[in-house]
């Protein structure tokens, strides 16, 4: 039973990141269909997902079309009550739903001044007062949630939940634009940057298409503040330690070099997403450590 999910560019589509995390972080099967933003690709794909107009849009195995991340989260939680999308404790669950609802509808100044861009990080973006107010509201919500639910994990309401998935794109904005937040808020941001599902999404986003000019900014740059990837690189050749791709099981055609060893993949995207962050991919790491 596999769902379909229409997404935009992984590096830039914050709503798509949120929707995809609702599957990957909770181990739910999904097939993605990517459309490049600012082209007619999204409208073309969504012709088969009436009446949806935006990414992400989900289609259930039975054929129901569900746009909007709030609706996707609730439908998945109903269908998969043991997956953990919402906390099991009633008070924590209510808190998580409050968080997701405000994130879904709010923080317009932050969204506008700091569009999501996972390919760069800046030293400063000179945030205006309205953005600083949004950041203070985020800190208030995050602190309130952790206190209200007595969370002892890195997450807002105990174990990672849909509420955290909803805030992931905001966490990336803080990382990308080096926005001023408290130490506690920054720790929450860093937890997102290290989350396995997010690392996989960002690795794919680094290589799934050219840069989008709309998101280009002239601020001074710094290194990405998340976990540093292992120093892999794409390489030529036909010989590798493995004969089949660790993801698809198909014969290898594209090579990666890491620590003087060569590994093969079935296509350029499989290789390049691994080059972007080898440790994000358990099947590759199992091969690398074997």
Explain what this protein looks like in three dimensions.
This protein is of the alpha+beta class. It is built from 11 helices and 9 strands. The chain has helices at residues 14-24, 41-45, 69-79, 90-105, 108-113, 129-149, 162-177, 183-194, 196-205, 268-276, 282-288, and strands spanning 3-7, 30-34, 57-59, 65-67, 121-122, 221-222, 233-235, 254-258, 261-265. The strands form 3 sheets. Strands 2-1-3-4 form a 4-stranded mixed beta sheet, with helices on one face. The longest helix has 21 residues, at 129-149. It is globular, with a radius of gyration of 19 Å. It starts with a strand and ends with a helix. Residues 12-78 form the GST N-terminal domain. This is Glutathione S-transferase.
Structural class designation = alpha+beta
Mean pLDDT across every amino acid position: 97
CATH level-1 class of the largest domain: Mainly Alpha
Element order: H for helix, E for strand: EHEHEEHHHEHHHHEEEEHH
CATH architecture of the largest domain: Up-down Bundle
Task: Count helical runs.
Answer: 11
Distance between the termini: 32 Å
* CATH fold-type name of the largest domain: Glutathione S-transferase Yfyf (Class Pi), Chain A, domain 2
Helix content: 40-55%
Q: How many strand elements?
A: 9
Strand order of the largest sheet: 2-1-3-4
Task: Please describe the biggest sheet, giving its number of strands, its sense, and whether it closes into a barrel.
Answer: 4 strands, mixed
Assembly annotation:
single chain
**Count of discrete structural domains:** 3
Q: What does the radius of gyration come to?
A: 19 Å
Portion in beta strands: 5-15%
Shape: globular
Contiguous uncertain segments of 5+ residues: none
């Amino acid at each position: 039973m596999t769902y379909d999910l229409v997404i935009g560019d992984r590096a830039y589509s914050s709503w798509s990141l949120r929707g995809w995390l609702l599957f990957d972080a909770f181990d739910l099967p999904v097939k993605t269909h990517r459309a490049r933003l600012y082209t007619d690709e999204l409208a073309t794909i969504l012709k088969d997902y009436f009446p949806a107009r935006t990414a992400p849009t989900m289609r259930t195995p039975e054929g129901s079309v569900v746009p909007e991340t709030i609706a996707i989260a609730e439908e998945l939680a109903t269908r998969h009550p043991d997956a953990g999308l919402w906390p099991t404790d009633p008070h924590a669950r209510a808190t998580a739903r409050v968080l997701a609802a405000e994130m879904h509808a709010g923080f317009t100044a932050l969204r506008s001044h700091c569009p999501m861009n996972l390919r760069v990080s800046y030293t400063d973006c000179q945030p205006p007062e309205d953005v600083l107010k949004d950041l203070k509201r985020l800190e208030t919500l995050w602190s309130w949630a952790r206190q209200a639910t007595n969370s002892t994990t890195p997450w807002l309401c105990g174990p990672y939940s849909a509420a955290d998935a909803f805030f992931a794109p905001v966490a990336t904005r803080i990382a990308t634009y080096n926005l001023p937040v408290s130490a506690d808020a920054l720790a929450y941001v860093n937890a997102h940057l290290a989350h396995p599902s997010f690392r996989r999404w960002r690795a794919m986003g680094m290589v799934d298409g050219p840069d989008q000019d709309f998101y280009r900014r002239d601020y001074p740059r710094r290194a990405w503040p998340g976990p540093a990837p292992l120093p892999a690189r794409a390489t030529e050749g036909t010989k590798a330690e493995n004969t089949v791709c660790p993801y698809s099981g198909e014969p290898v055609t594209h090579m990666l070099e890491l620590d003087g060893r060569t590994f093969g993949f079935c296509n350029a995207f499989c290789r390049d997403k691994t080059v972007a962050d080898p440790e994000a991919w358990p099947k590759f790491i199992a091969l690398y450590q074997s």
